[in-house]
UniProtKB/TrEMBL annotation:
Signal peptide residues on this chain, from the entry's feature table: 1-26
Keywords: Hydrolase, Signal
Protein name: Alpha/beta hydrolase
Limits of the AF-1763-like C-terminal domain: 319-430
Source superkingdom: Bacteria
AFL C-terminal domain sequence ranges: 206-299
Keyword Signal: yes
Lineage of producing organism: Bacteria, Bacillati, Actinomycetota, Actinomycetes, Streptosporangiales
MF GO annotations: hydrolase activity; O-acyltransferase activity
């Protein structure tokens, strides 16, 4: 009898031990802090959608950051970019008590991150996983860090030897950062399991924060005042004369958090002075967002300084972190302003990789000419410019984007502010 009981006890012990081992093996990898490093003329805005997807799968939004820098290297050196990243990693590790961070780089950011990881074993030791987004190939995973390399359209001979290489040949260069497919691959690479969802999971009451920065240097828009208004989705008009929030911009341009509604439309007015206001509009954020980037410039400076202005017409800058394809027919995109299609083979060919479009009345002649792009803008990487007369007549401007692949239309309506004193930027979702 005692022998049988002993056998039964040992069998039960082995069963429990086996179950414990299975549970241990099935335990998912921890959710470490995530850092994104952008490419040329980029910012944290390229990772905004993915950050909200990660948050919808349980990541705290303050554990997801973007490491930004001046990609022209006029205001920082490569060594300073690396030193700043060292500080960011150490701060996040201390804050979250994680053992390591997960790192992503895009385009120029991949060259920088490969150099960074190869620069010292101490740096590489703090990185659990590295994702190389449509950038530099390599003969080995940088710094010996486990690497996922994501490649968009172009040669499938590109690779990082020894890494996990995936190819999304129907995706553009910036689209590889923001796509659902990239998110799913990166999430599983980081955590060892598929995400619960690839949607941006809506929230009712949200918090918004971010930076107001000069484009493309990513320096803070110091000296400006930020006013945030809830606006009508039908006209873009402010629902109240009183702002939801007012913040003085200083230092690196950080602002927030500001309480908001996930379903609402907002205007972010960057006020330089009474005669120079930059109005920025977004589609509803849907959930809390810590990577809201307000890309602006000082009055008369940068590309905006090349825009011809006047009291009788409006000027627009339209952004989307997914290329506008204007030469692909039904397989491309559509972008209509007041019913006028502005994408075509001349201004937004697929090869241009356009993500930002300036639209204004070139020559201030009250005529539209979309046959050729405006050279000063078209010559810039990822940017185009079109001659479009938009009357500043008090009626709202209608913008309708139909992304390639179909399925939905994105609509934004904004006031027709006169370009003599006011700039307008509109950002469409990329998901």
């Amino acid at each position: 009898m005692m022998f049988r009981r002993l056998i039964a006890f040992l069998a039960a012990l082995l069963l429990v031990s086996g179950m414990t081992a299975q549970v241990a093996q099935a335990k998912p990898k921890p959710q470490r802090p995530v850092i994104f490093v952008h490419g040329f003329s980029g910012s944290g805005s390229q990772f905004d959608t993915q950050a909200r997807r990660f948050a919808g799968n349980g990541y705290p939004i303050d554990h997801i950051e973007a490491h930004e820098y001046d990609s022209l290297f006029q205001h920082n050196t490569e060594a300073q970019v690396f030193a700043g990243l060292d500080q960011r990693i150490d701060r996040l590790l201390k804050k979250t008590r994680a053992d390591k961070v997960d790192l992503l780089g895009h385009s120029l950011g991949t060259r920088l991150m490969q150099t960074y990881l190869n620069s010292s074993p101490e740096r590489a030791a703090k990185i659990a996983h590295y994702v190389n987004l449509d950038g530099a190939p390599a003969a080995a995973p940088p710094g010996g860090v486990p690497t996922l390399a994501v490649w968009g359209e172009g040669s499938t001979a590109r690779q990082i030897v020894g890494a996990e290489n995936v190819y999304f040949s129907d995706q553009g260069h910036t689209q590889t950062v923001t796509s659902v497919e990239t998110f799913a691959a990166a999430y599983e690479f980081f955590t060892g399991k598929a995400p619960r969802t690839t949607r941006i999971v809506p929230q009712v009451r949200i918090e918004l924060s971010g930076r107001a920065v000069l484009f493309p240097s990513n320096l803070g828009a110091e000296g400006a005042r930020l006013e945030i208004y809830e606006v009508s989705p039908w006209t873009g008009a402010r629902k109240s004369r009183k702002p939801v929030a007012v913040r003085q911009i200083s230092g690196d341009g950080s602002w927030g958090p500001v309480k908001a509604w996930g379903h609402a439309h907002y205007e972010f007015a960057v006020v330089w002075n009474d005669q120079a206001v930059h109005h920025l509009y977004f589609q509803p954020f849907r959930r809390s967002d810590a990577l809201v980037r307000l890309l602006t410039s000082r009055p008369g400076e940068g590309l905006s300084g090349l825009v011809e202005t006047g009291p009788g017409h409006s000027s627009l800058t339209i952004n989307r972190q997914k290329e506008w394809w204007g030469d692909q027919g039904t397989a491309g995109d559509s972008l209509k302003i007041n019913g006028q299609e502005i994408l075509n083979a001349a201004s937004s060919p697929r090869t241009k990789r356009t993500i930002g479009i300036f639209a204004f009345d070139a020559g201030v002649d009250r005529t539209t000419d979309l046959a050729t792009p405006i050279p000063a803008f078209f010559s810039q990487p990822f940017i185009s410019g079109v001659d479009l007369y938009i009357p500043a007549n008090g009626r709202p401007i209608s913008l309708v984007a139909t992304p390639r692949g179909g399925g939905h239309k994105d609509v934004l309506n904004v006031p027709s502010w006169p370009s003599a004193t006011d700039r307008i930027s509109v950002s469409f979702d990329d998901d």
